[in-house]
Each structure stands twice: as C-alpha cells, then as structure tokens.
Design a protein that fits this description.
alpha/beta, six-stranded mixed sheet, five-stranded mixed sheet, protein phosphatase, protein tyrosine/serine/threonine phosphatase activity, Dual_spec_PTase
Length: about 800
C-alpha cells in the first residue's frame, strides 16, 4: 500500500492510514509481530492531513537524443560525448521523488509477509522512476579511461560474461534491513536508463539489453501490469579522449590510469581524521597528535599516495616543524620502556644543548590500554608508567624539549597515557584531567580503561613520592642496560642493539638514510608507521539488527521474527548492553537459534559502566560531590563527540547526565525522537518527537526547526542526541553542517563521521536519501548520484567491520 506523504508529524511515507487497514494486516497473527514503531505509536487518526502531491518531475532522455540507433543493435541508442555530458548535468540536477522509492529501495518487493507488516504495506509496486547509470565496459582495466561514478558490468549483472545474463538478485530474504547500502547499485540499475562506453561496449550493451528485456517480462508477469516504464540502453560513440579533452569534470581516471576525481570515502575519511586530530600542545612542550605528525612518517596526506607504501619524499617527510625530539607511540600490545631504554635516551639527549635537536629523533612506545587482573599486575604496570612520566617531565620541563605522544588516529589510543600525564604533571584528579584535555582537543576513552585510570589517579596521589627505579644509582641502570643488550631479543631472536627500532623496545633513531634502507636486518629498520593502518580499526560499527531493536525499542522476541537462519556458519559479535548476538557471516542476518539479547529494563538505559571491581580504589567523598557526572551510571567513559566548537553529537546516556552537560557548558539540547527528561528550567530543550529510526519516518521537515534552535543559542554549546547517537541525531547533524557550512553531502558526512571518533555514524538508507535531497535543494544539484553514494558508504563501513 502506498499512501502519499504528509509533511507534518502525523504521517509518513507508506503509512497505514486507518485502523481497519492496520487490523487487517495483523489479523490472525500474534500481537508481538514486529511492526515499525512509526506505524504503531503515532496517532493515525489525524483529521486533516495535508496530502503531498506525488513528484511530477521525472527525469527522461530527450527524444532528440534517441534518433540514432546502433547499426547492429536496434535497441541500443547512440549518443555523443557532448550529449552524455548534457544528460549527466540534467540528471544530477533533477529533483529526487519523495514518495515512490521507499520501501522498495530497502529491498522490499512485497513477497514477504513480515516485511510488508513492518513497513505497513500489502504490496509494493515497482517505482515509476527513471534513473541513469553509466557502465564502464572494460573490466580488465577498471582504473584506466574511466568516467566518474561509472560501475562495472559485474556490479549489475549476475554473470557479466554470459550471453543471457540477469540483473543481480537483490532479494535478501524476509529480513528487514534499514541500511541496505550494498544492494543499491544493482537495485537502482533495474529502474534506470543505462549508458555504456569503453572498448567492450558492444558486448556489454548486448548483455544488458537482454537482462532488461528478461526483467521487464518477469515484472509484467508477476505484477500483471504492462504499463511499467521501459528502460533504455545507450552507448557513447566518441572515444574517451574526447571526454578527457572537452569534459574533464566527467573523468574519474584518465587514459594513463591517473586518478583525477577521487571519490573514495575511505581515503577522504583518513585525511579528515588526520586534519581533525593534528598535533597540538596540551602542556608546555608536550604535544598530542596522530602518527602522521611524526617527523619522517612514511605516510602522506596526499590522497593519491595513501596506498603507495613505496612513496617517499625526503624533503617533505624529514621536516620537523614542531621541533620534536621525542615521539611516543601508544598502541595495543606495545611494551612500556625499560629503565635502560629511558637511561640511554636521557644520556643521548642530555649530551646536547637544550636548544639543539638530536640528529636522530628518539622513538618510544607505550600501552594504550591495560586491564589489571590483580593488585600486583597493576603495580608492575604503574612502576613502568611512572618512570615514563618522570622521563617526559624531565625532558619537557627541565630541558625544554618538545615531545609528541601519538597514535594512528590521534584521539583514542593516546588517551590513557595523556590523561595519566595530565594528572601527574598538574596534580589534578581524573575528572579534572578529562575537562582539561577536552578544552584542548577531542579524545575518546574506552570504557574498559576507566578502572585503570582510577587506579593510576589513586597511585599518583598516594604513591608518587615513593622511591622508584629512576632514583637508583647510575651504575645499576648501566648494569641493567648492559645485561639487556647481551640477551637475545625476545620477539625475533636477534641480538638487540642500542639503535634498534621501536618494535624491539629500545631507542629508535630515524635518519634520512634509514628511510631508504631495504635491509630488513639493518639496525635501524623503518619504524612502525610504515605498516600501521592509517586509522584505528577498533571503532564501533553497530549491527543493523541491533540498531533496529534498540532505536525502535522492539522486543527481542518480535524483532527476531524478522530473521531466518540462512547459514550454519555464525559468529558472535560483542555489542553494547552486554549482548551476544549470533549473526551470519554477512553481518546482516540474525538467527533465531542460539540467540540471547539483553535489553535493559529501563527504556532510557543504553549502557552503564561497572564500578564494582574489587581493585577499585576508595573514592574521595569530595570527588563524588565535585564530579557527580563522572561517577554517574550514565557516564560511559567518554564525552559526546564535538562536531563544531559549540555543537556536540551523542546518545541518550549523554543527554541524561545533566551534570556532565553542565561541566561541558552545554545549555541547549536537541532530542531526536527520545525524551531526555532534563529540567527545562536548567536547559533549553527542543524535542523532535515521534521520529523513529525505522526506515519510514522522514527528517525532511525538521531541518529549519533545528537550525533556528541552534542559531538562537547564539554560540552556546548544544547537544544533538537520539538513542544510540549514530542514525537519527547523526542525520540531523549532517543536515545542519550542510546548511551552515555550505558543505556537500559527502563533505558533511565525512566531517561528522570523523568527529564522532570511535563510534561510526550509520544513518539509515532513507535518511541518507533525504540528505541527498537536501543537497539538491541547497545547491541545485547532487555532488554524487545515489548508487555511488551507497557504494562508498558500504565500502567504508565494511572496512571498519572486524
């Protein structure tokens, strides 16, 4: 059933418009069958609903461009490069329809009852929509002579080499998927005119025409409707050189294979993260940044060079603009520096005048996380940590040397060491260190590190004056060092050397010659930056099923009835709320068997940290009074994400911790579909009520309301939140960034995604579609077509999926 959308909050697309229809859909079924909350919880009986007219503007190819046919393929129309450029411009500026593509784009064809029930429809018609897609007919050379946003034949045909292919089957079974980005290229191709070009254009065009004919016959047979649109096949007759010469904006890769217009979200996100987390000074002479800030880093910010490990520009990469003498990298499985290592580094640096840089930068490493299993294990860790902090203090405060603490992303793995340094140096409590660091840069703390940070805080304030190894005699230190040098390296069996790199735990010296040495056994091997991932791979990517259950507050039993077990091969994925969900290998289907989901008893609770460890030190009662936000069950270990200096993005736990909001000087709160329960006398509140993350509800009519509210704050800090903080609130935030900063959808999406830190934003499919509509409204054209947008989102998400 397809009911026109109303712009107000009383109705949504494909909304069941009366109780009788709703009862008919669920007749004879158990009452706990899953149904989209926007169909169940919103008032259906709105007496005067404004009926939005169906979109009348439909993209079409002018008849003047359909006069020339291929000499041997009657169903293939020939066009010139100029005509394609005109078609592309027209298509990218044609308004997208509001009402006809959903829920069809979700993968719903009307053949599964549970899908129909969830979306409130009894049948799904093929959208009367005409898109346009360009196919690169040269699979052997996918990165040569390629038009921007083109797809390869195998992305839309199930067997691109067969003489009788079909379009890729986009059916995903009875499951309800709200983030079906993976299937959008193949699905959109079935409602698009297709343009083909390239050296194999004749053969590919023939196969696509056959697939179009077969699909049309199938649809007519199934739907009993011969009035469906007939989609066309076109071929560019000009060589690619004409496009290169006259229409450079259409060139993705030129004829030499050089990338001209890079649309890779992964590469652009890496650049965005690095720009966002670049090094800055947090205390005198101590800096925090990402690994690209390390002088001599083998990585370049140049998009075209991200994946080229052989690239090296000695002039650029050996620059040291911040005059770093020491670089300390925090990462998992690192080894804390031994006393002999710190002694050698100190002697090396102290032989130089304070104002003089060492010829070779000192590289050290530190753990980014630690889980104490006993008091003894923590004491051993703390002894190593305090030696490192004393070394940093000596070199920064006494000798005035600049020190960089870094990790791959610049905000997560450094947090343990940086917060420890702030507490040690400034003698302030852990909550104060949080606020001190937050004023200077964004950071993220894993919840599992809260306990060890509290233990570090307690030890700094109660044990820091006790004798440490650094107070032993110089002779003992030299003996330790000499003994270590005479022992085989524990990692690879090689003899240690005073200048062996960071991965062998001694002082690492980076020189110009080192960077070009290819001998693996050389004492100064390339540092760990050469093989580190460009961004951390530990960010949280939520499963679509999890988001559907939590955001829409479905009961586990009803939600699971959407899913069948299509595979015996399952894996266990750890999610927040201490859930153990068995899912199939494609990370989309959830099995009803062997599944346990713990939904909190309180609707508002998402996750709470556990402060009941027997290792937890006694908490000063005054801290509970001064920093109630830190000890609240709502505090997850990190603040909401700072997107702009005065704009934060977070989840319901952030919004229901009023003391934390006050500590961050947040005075305005936008609640997207969730009630924060905040006192309106203490905060300015905007509730976007009845807005669900169910693939049905629309955010299109909310932009102006949010923009006006934030603008009226006049620079005061504002939090936008929903339940999980990745879909509804993220989509609203992206829209705000587009409107206020004049960014395209891709720019705003990556801008927000990078600044959400360890939590990956995941607006549902319909929200992303409406953001593309907003881009058209703001700028008069799309910067990226729908299929390419979805492909890039899918690729960037699977790159983060462990």
């Amino acid at each position: 059933m397809d009911v026109p959308e109303s712009p107000d909050t009383c109705s949504t697309e494909t909304r069941v418009n009366n109780d009788a229809t709703s009862r008919q859909l669920v007749a004879g079924e158990q009452c706990n069958k899953p149904m989209a909350p926007s169909l169940v919880k919103k008032p259906i009986e709105c007496k005067q609903q404004q009926q939005e007219a169906r979109t009348a503007c439909l993209f079409d190819i002018p008849a003047t461009m359909l006069t020339q046919r291929h000499p041997s393929l009657y169903n293939v129309h020939m066009i010139t490069a100029q005509q394609y450029a005109e078609l592309y411009s027209t298509f990218m500026s044609t308004p997208l329809p509001n009402d006809i593509l959903f829920p069809w784009l979700h993968g719903v064809d009307g053949q599964y009852y549970l899908q129909n029930l969830f979306f409130g429809v009894d049948q799904v018609e093929i959208p009367r929509h005409r898109g346009m897609m360009i196919v690169h007919a040269d699979s052997m050379y996918p990165h040569h002579a390629r038009i921007v946003h083109s797809v390869l034949p195998h992305e839309i045909l199930d067997d691109a080499t067969s003489d009788d292919p079909s379009f890729v089957d986009t059916s995903r079974g009875p499951n309800v998927h709200l983030r079906n980005f993976k299937i959008q290229i193949a699905r959109y191709a079935t409602i698009s005119d297709i343009v083909v070009y390239g050296c194999d254009a004749h053969a590919v065009a023939t196969r696509i025409v056959n697939a179009q004919t077969k699909l049309r016959e199938k649809r007519i047979k199934e739907k009993g409707n011969d009035s469906l649109l007939e989609y066309r096949m076109l071929m560019i007759q000009d060589p690619f050189s004409v496009i290169e010469e006259h229409y450079p904006h259409l060139v993705g890769h030129d004829s030499r294979g050089v990338c001209i217009h890079n649309i890779s979200f992964s590469e652009r996100e890496r650049k965005e993260i690095r720009a966002m987390s670049e090094a800055n000074e947090i205390t005198s002479h101590v800096w925090v940044g990402n690994s690209n800030d390390v002088p001599g880093s083998a990585r370049s910010l140049n998009d075209d060079l991200f994946d080229n490990d052989d690239y090296y520009n000695s002039d650029d990469e050996m620059e040291n603009p911040y005059q770093f003498s020491i670089c300390i990298e925090s990462y998992d499985l690192a080894e804390m520096p031994q006393p002999s290592t710190l002694m050698l580094a100190r002697e090396t640096l102290n032989d130089l005048p304070s104002e003089e840089l060492p010829i070779e930068i000192i590289h050290l490493e530190a753990l980014c996380s630690f889980t104490p299993t006993s008091t003894a294990s923590f004491d051993q860790f703390f002894a190593k940590l305090i030696r490192l902090l004393e070394f940093i203090d000596d070199q920064a405060s006494v000798h005035g040397r600049n020190i960089l603490i870094h990790c791959s992303d610049g905000y997560s793995e450094t947090s343990l060491l940086v917060l420890s340094w702030i507490m040690y140096k400034l003698r302030i409590r852990l909550p104060e260190a949080y606020l001190f660091l937050q004023e200077r840069r964004s950071f993220f703390v894993l919840a599992s590190n809260i306990l060890v940070l509290q233990l570090i805080e307690h030890s700094i304030f109660h044990q820091v004056n006790k004798p440490t190894i650094e107070m032993e005699s110089q002779k003992r230190k030299r003996d330790d060092y000499e003994e270590q040098q005479n022992q085989p390296d524990k990692r690879d069996g090689r003899q240690s050397n005073a200048t062996i790199g960071v991965k062998h735990q001694d002082v690492k010296a980076t020189t110009r010659d080192d960077m070009t040495n290819n001998d693996d056994d050389h004492a100064t091997t390339p540092n760990r930056l050469d093989y580190l991932p460009l961004v951390s791979d530990h960010r949280q990517l939520y499963d679509d099923t999890y988001l559907n259950i939590v955001s829409n507050q479905l009961t586990p039993s009803s939600a699971l009835q959407q899913h069948d077990n299509h595979s015996n091969d399952t894996q266990t994925v750890t999610l927040p709320m201490h859930e153990s969900i068995h899912i199939s290998e494609d990370n989309n289907d959830i099995s009803e068997n062997n599944t346990t989901i713990a939904i909190p008893a309180e609707d508002n609770e998402i996750w709470t940290h556990n402060l009941s460890s027997p290792l937890l030190p006694p908490i000063d009662p005054q801290e509970l009074v001064d920093f109630p936000w830190f000890y609240s069950s709502r505090f997850e270990g990190s603040f909401p994400s700072r997107i702009l200096p005065n704009l934060y993005l977070g989840n319901l736990n952030h919004a229901t911790n009023p003391d934390m909001l006050k500590a961050l000087q947040i005075t305005h709160v936008v609640s997207v579909g969730e009630h924060s329960g905040l006192d309106p006398s203490q905060f300015q509140l905007l509730l976007l009520d009845n807005l669900y993350d169910d693939g049905i509800d629309s955010i299109r009519g909310r932009w102006n309301q949010v923009t006006q509210f934030i603008d009226q704050a006049k620079g005061a800090n504002c939090l936008i939140h929903c339940r999980v903080g990745v879909s509804r609130s993220a989509a609203i935030t992206i829209g705000y960034i587009m409107k206020q900063l004049g960014m395209s959808l891709v720019q705003a999406y990556l801008f927000v995604r990078a600044r959400r830190l360890n939590v990956i934003i995941q607006p549902n499919l319909k929200f992303m579609y409406e953001l593309l509509q907003l881009e058209l409204e703001l700028f008069g054209k799309m910067s990226i077509p729908w299929p390419s947008l979805c492909k890039q989102i899918h690729l960037i998400n699977i790159s983060c999926d462990p």
